[in-house]
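Sequence and structure are kept together here, with a separate record for every protein. An example record follows, reproduced without changes.
>
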Amino acid sequence: GTSPLQKFPATDYTINSITWESDNIKDVITSNHFEPSKHNLQYYYEKYLVKIDKKPFYGNYGKIPSHGIASVVVVVDKDTIPIPQTAYNDLFQPEFTYRDESGTIRTRNGVFLSADKKGIYVYMLNNEAVGHYEVTWIIHDKKYVGRVIDSGLLK
């Protein structure tokens, strides 16, 4: 019985970044190349990667990822909302775009605004072949509140 959240369409997206921009909100997520030599990698039976930097991770399950999220930037009314690295440094293989059946490049990701205009929800879906994860970063009253991750969803 509630109204749907207002959704902002992506204004620019590439294989390495995605941007949403409205009158007073701008969100940008970027990725970078993953350099295994700069991380502590832990394996199960010396074959399956299970932890990066002593923490479980999301994306490219069991294998070394090729890229990860470099930054999540949210600007509201010219104020940059600090998003801590811990909110994205365990997320790998981000998928900003895909091709639909007709070959058109699209995105599954979005930015949503609550009815009272105080809540911003930055949503990203990583749709891998083996499994996928989705993450929503939550901003309220120009402050980062946290993130919600759903993972282990198999096709």
About this structure: The mean pLDDT is 91. The two ends are 31 Å apart (CA to CA). Residues 131 and 153 are 5 Å apart (CA to CA).
